[in-house]
Amino acid sequence: MSGASLAGRRIVVSAGPTFEDIDPVRFIGNRSSGKMGFAVAEAAARRGAQVVLVAGPVSLHTPQGVERVDVRSARQMREAVIAALPADVYIGAAAVADYAPAVIAPGKIKKKEEQLTLALVRTPDILAEVAVHERRPAMVVGFAAETHDVEFYARGKLEKKRVDLIAANRVGVSGSGFESDDNALTVYWAGGARALGPAPKTELADQLLDLILTRWPA
Ligand code: CTP
User: Fold this and answer.
1) Residue range 117-134, pLDDT digits in tens
2) Catalytic residue positions?
3) Which ligand 1 atom is the nearest neighbour of the CA of 94?
4) Distance 112 CA to ligand 1 centre (A)
5) Is residue 73 part of a domain?
6) pLDDT computed for residue 218 by the predictor
7) DSSP per position, 67-131
8) 14-73: per-residue pLDDT in tens?
9) Which CATH number is 70's domain given?
10) What is the CA radius of gyration of the chain?
11) What confidence category does residue 185 fall into, taking pLDDT thresholds of 50, 70 and 90?
């Protein structure tokens, strides 16, 4: 589980969910544990990379040798990721909320009517922004959590977001997914694909880093 050296490389990894506040006591979140992104950050640091880990709200220890920046919302995550550029690699493993409340109520929303409608607005797409940034990393890697037509949607994201690799979670493989310690990924690039795992996320992290190195632009 060693792999090729990443000494001299700067790698920015995003991990975990984002929480989008509704009012001072409520938020919209998701079930991402952050384990996959933390495993990638840890593996990259172990190989000598300079790693910035932009973490949403998770209860995980900071991997050794990793610079961690804690954030809460998609907007804060975007700021932290852009501030961490330039880098050689960006790995967007975070489950970023696609929508956030249009306004954060300053006080706790009290129950009144039978129905309550929450207005939501799109959050910035961090991955797509990094991929066209003037300080674009040589390798931009996204994740995709799909329940069906995995290849179709993964390849769609590859093109639409202009990224180099998309690692799609193979859902339906036993023991893989958001809260599990194990995972199975199929990584897609223009003209190719490779299945990784099922394996512990720590092992998959090393396999993903190896694949990133083999796909590195000449
Ligand atoms: N992502 C991001 N910023 C967002 C939403 C997603 O950077 N606002 C990144 C994630 O970190 C991940 C990739 O985009 O690397 C895929 O996210 P996903 O939510 O699966 O894709 P979407 O484009 O949001 O498509 P959909 O939700 O329709 O499947």
Assistant:
1) 999 999 999 999 999 999
2) 30
3) 11
4) 35
5) yes
6) 77
7) EEEE--SHHHHHHHHHHT-S-SEEEE--B--SEEESS--SSPPPP-SS-----EEEPP-HHHHHH
8) 999 999 999 999 999 999 999 999 999 999 999 999 999 999 999 999 999 999 999 999
9) 3.40.50.10300
10) 18
11) very high
Q: Indicate the DSSP class of residue 203.
A: H
Contact in structure between 146 and 96 (CB atoms under 8 Å) = no
Pairing mode, strands 165-170 and 139-146: parallel
| Residue 31 falls inside a structural domain | yes
Quick check: is 4 in a domain?
A: no
Q: Is the CB of 143 under 6 A from ligand 1?
A: yes
Structure pTM?
0.95
Q: Which residues are paired to 14 by β-bridges?
A: 54, 92
Contact 130 CB / ligand 1 (< 6 Å): no
Round to whole Å and give the CA distance between 162 and 90. 13
